Amino acid sequence: MSFWKTLPKPIIGLSPMDGITDMPFREIVAKVSKPSVIFTEFVNAKGLFLGNIKLYNHLLFSTRERPIIGQLFGAEPEYFYKAAHILCELGFDGIDINMGCPANTVVNKNGGASLIKQPKLALEIIKQTKLGVRDWYNGQSLENLDLDKEKIAWIQEHKQDKDRQIVPVSVKTRLGYNKNTIDSWIITLLKAKPEAIIVHGRTFSQLYHGTANWEAIGSIAAKVRSVGITYLGNGDITSKDEAIQKIQTYQLDGVLIGRAACGNPWIFSDYKPTIKKRLQVALEHIKCNRAIKGSTGVNELKKHLSWYCKGFDQAKTLRTNLMEVKQYSDFISLLENAIITYSL
What we know:
Number of strands: 8
CATH class of the largest domain: Alpha Beta
Distance between the termini: 52 Å
Largest sheet: 8 strands, parallel
CATH architecture of the largest domain: Alpha-Beta Barrel
Order of helices and strands: HEHEHEHEHHHEHEHHEHEHHHH
Strand order of the largest sheet: 1-8-7-6-5-4-3-2
């Protein structure tokens, strides 16, 4: 049975965010407040077969993060079929198809939110992803798909032990492209019978401007849930209490929280950290990032540290100093000194 069916309700999960929900961030979130479910950053389905092996680092995860969903984007069904094998072999608990990303680099290549305008292609991508899961479950190997030996070796080295089972496929999307067309768009998605559907409460054209339309999210809840598909909303949630309120008001199975988790990995719990605790976890995030990414992860880490360092005396000065850092040891020294200051 799909974990979506057995996951305790209400579901409050960590939303996929490109360039943000990498393994170090997910590890910290999972450790300090444990969401119901965690999504990776999106990964190019075609790139997993034709791209550089470095792309596979986006698929690293630990057992602490379970249940963990690997998110794919792209526009070519045959590569979703193949990518499904890879995610299943690595031991992911679920596969999510990105049909909501508004980035021009994705949309201009017919992926992400552009799939809302291409219902036949969207349905074929879901179909091929599910077929890829089924064929993997029935014993088809990565060698059968002509994946190169270097990538197969990487997968064998990094995969997590997990019983072979059907991995559920979900879809994360938006209300529509240029306008709210969720009533017709959801009918299309329901034909493909994904295990879960997550709707962000904006259209493509809104990007992340304005406010999420939760009335629109809630308007299709009964229709989705009536056919046994798990239904989650997403957009602008700033606290656990607000998440629960949205779930109850709009009759959802759950929600995903995205940007509000940045610098606040405790958002999935009732814990309210002191400034000292916030800085201690920021320090832990630095060390986790170093262990996983090494020297290449220094600049990527800066945005996370800036989010931790807000809303207290001298936060701006600390942020400014952190942004000038070029190596991990300097990050650590700055945070250790700040922790001493806020311990007095």
